[in-house]
Write a structure and sequence with these properties.
Blueprint: H1 3-19, H2 24-32, H3 38-45, E1 52-54, E2 77-84, E3 87-94, H4 105-121, E4 125-129, H5 140-156, E5 162-166, E6 169-171, H6 176-180, E7 183-187, E8 192-194, H7 198-205, H8 211-215, H9 217-224, E9 229-231, H10 234-247, H11 286-293, E10 300-302, E11 310-317, E12 320-327, H12 338-353, E13 358-364, H13 371-375, H14 378-391, E14 396-405, H15 406-411, E15 421-424, E16 429-431, H16 435-449, H17 453-471, H18 475-479, E17 485-486, H19 492-502
Parallel strand pairs: 3-4, 4-5, 5-7, 6-8, 7-9, 12-13, 13-14, 14-15, 14-16, 15-17
Antiparallel strand pairs: 1-2, 2-3, 10-11, 11-12
The structure holds hexanoyl-coenzyme A.
Length: 520
């Protein structure tokens, strides 16, 4: 064999060794926990044969605790690039079979390299986390590595989309990299995220809690809101990431891909003409409206288990990606509260950062009253959503279906927040507050003076009718041009598509500033 062929053989052997990560035994152990390896995950995530690996031969440089004797090619993270539906994507996947996927100085350098490359090329970064955290033997070098990644997450935010899959442990300060990214997908039963684990919790607070109850997928998708997606298997998680990528652009200077659409743009849905119940206090299901108006009913909901009184997610109109924000009358009457405001504000800001038009469907009775909300700072959290809509420069189309009262009316993308097209259904009620509250404030004392309960009820009904006649309709707002048109519900899809076509060339810039000071 020639010297050159010998060298090629050596390369092939080294590659095979690197691909084995921590070795067969640890790969089996990974599989026995119901988890895939880093390489298997990337193979599922990227288009077949598209993965190009970087830094396969990187090793750590640590000599503490005899570490020079335990080196693995790649040092616990697989990095590189590939494509999803033909579009360039940078990836890293932590390899739990090598020192528990723990993050060393060199491991961090590999992640930073793909992040830097993604920024130069203007392409999304997807990171799959499965790691015991900072490589203990490397001490401060591991911490420095995390800090380098965090800094890059911050600078990349709003420039290229960043998506985190949490498919195993993600603990301690390590959680802050995913937290700085745009979307977190967690697997049920096999992943967890927390700043301090159950043992530390027990020592400090005396509380007994399992890993799952402290930071499992259901905790973060339903209670804390840290994770946008909770999935039952890694395959579903990876499909969710691929689907998410299909709705979003490569970077902040590009538009989301437009896909071919065979759903007729003028498709009418008569059911929408009959969906609003006669009684203002009876709910209906906003998912039915969303499903009816978007292309083929294909809706990728974000944060589906969190703050269910507001629905956010991606859909398409005539093939064009939009972000949908909709109050859900079926849950807490669609009221805005702290969690709903935070959830929707984050989504609106993502869409605005990445040139995705916003379609807002309004049926909101107001903000949730009470000490719980006020003590929790609903003023500042509600202001986040107000701010997000007000600063957004993407096309903003709003349709008011029923209630739109008070501060919540303003927050939900009203005309004065630079709404481009504001439509209302004939059932819309746009007012300072609902009839009951208004009559109480304006005529409460007068009604109390009436002598009999029958007379009280009679005057109350009279005033209520008067108020409703004046305000429980869209025409009062339309008279002032705050509503551009009152539309037939069954025609909503077509009218939104026309509005999106009209606003395609929108150009709007906010005043120059170092950065904003949104109410955090
Ligand atoms: C070095 C580590 C490691 C770490 C795991 N390993 N975590 N090596 N540094 N942080 C190694 C183990 O020694 C073992 O090596 C292999 O990974 C698999 O670990 P096991 O414990 O056998 O696996 P398992 O039973 O599944 O438990 C996984 C685990 C546990 C729950 C993650 O390993 C664990 O508690 N690790 C420590 C977690 C931690 O406290 N990390 C520091 C957090 S603080 P072998 O050779 O046997 O395969 C932090 C600060 C970041 O990260 C700050 C950023 C700002």
């Amino acid at each position: 064999m020639s010297i050159q062929l010998e060298k090629i053989k050596e390369l092939i052997q080294l590659r095979e060794k690197a691909r084995l990560g921590g070795g067969e035994r640890r790969i089996e152990s990974q599989h026995s926990k119901g988890k895939f390896t880093a390489r298997e995950r990337l193979a599922m995530l990227l288009d077949e044969g598209s993965f190009e690996e970087f830094d396969m031969f990187v090793e750590h440089r640590c000599h503490n605790f005899g570490m020079e004797k335990t080196k693995f090619l790649g040092d616990g993270v697989v990095t590189g690039y590939g494509t999803i539906e033909g579009r360039l994507i940078y990836v890293y996947a932590q390899d739990f079979t090598v020192s528990g996927g723990s993050l060393s100085e060199m491991h961090a350098k590999k992640i930073c390299k793909v992040m830097d490359q993604a920024m130069k090329m203007g392409a999304p970064v997807i990171g799959i986390n499965d790691s015991g955290g900072a490589r203990i033997q490397e001490g401060i070098n591991a911490l420095a590595g995390y800090a380098e990644i965090f800094q890059r997450n911050i600078l990349a935010s709003g420039v290229v989309p960043q998506i985190s899959g949490i498919f195993g442990p993600c603990a301690g300060g390590a959680v802050y990299s995913p937290a700085l990214t745009d979307f977190i997908v967690m697997t049920q039963g096999t992943s967890y995220m927390f700043l301090t684990g159950p043992k530390v919790v027990k020592t400090v607070t005396g509380e007994d809690v399992t890993q799952e109850n402290l930071g499992g997928a259901s905790v973060h998708s339903a209670k804390s809101g840290v994770a946008q997606f909770s999935v039952d298997t890694e395959e579903t998680g990876i499909n969710t990431i691929r689907q998410l990528i299909s709705f979003i652009p490569q970077n902040n200077l590009e538009e989301a891909p437009v896909i071919e659409n065979d759903d007729p743009i003028d498709r009418l849905d008569d059911a929408l003409n009959d969906i609003i119940p006669d009684s203002a206090n009876r709910p209906y299901d906003m998912y039915e409206v969303i499903g009816s108006i978007i292309d083929k009913g294909e809706f990728l909901e974000v944060h589906s288990d969190y703050a269910k009184n507001i629905i956010v997610g991606f859909a398409r109109f005539n093939g064009q990606s939009v972000g949908i924000v909709a109050n859900q009358p079926k849950f807490l009457a669609g009221v805005l509260d702290i969690n709903a405001s935070r959830k929707a504000a984050r989504f609106v800001r993502f869409c605005d950062a990445f040139n995705i038009p916003l379609v807002t469907l309004v049926d909101v009775p107001g903000f949730l009253p009470g000490t719980g909300q006020e003590y929790g700072g609903v003023i500042v959290h509600g202001a986040k959503l107000l701010y997000a809509y007000g600063e957004a420069t993407v096309p903003k189309i709003t349709v008011t279906l029923r209630k739109s009262y008070g501060g919540a009316h303003i927050v939900m993308s009203c005309k004065q927040l630079r709404g481009d097209v504001n439509y209302a259904w004939p059932s819309a009620e746009i007012a300072v507050m609902g009839a009951d509250g208004a009559v109480e404030v304006l005529y409460g004392r007068e009604i109390a003076k009436e002598e009999t309960p029958e007379k009280k009820a009679e005057v109350y009904a009279e005033k209520r009718n008067e108020y409703n006649k004046l305000f429980a309709n869209p025409y009062e707002a339309a008279r002032y041009g705050f509503i551009d048109d009152v539309i037939e519900p069954r025609n909503t899809r077509f009218r939104i598509i026309r509005a999106l076509q009209q606003t395609q060339t929108k150009k709007l810039q906010n005043p120059a500033k170092k950065h904003d000071n949104l109410p955090l």
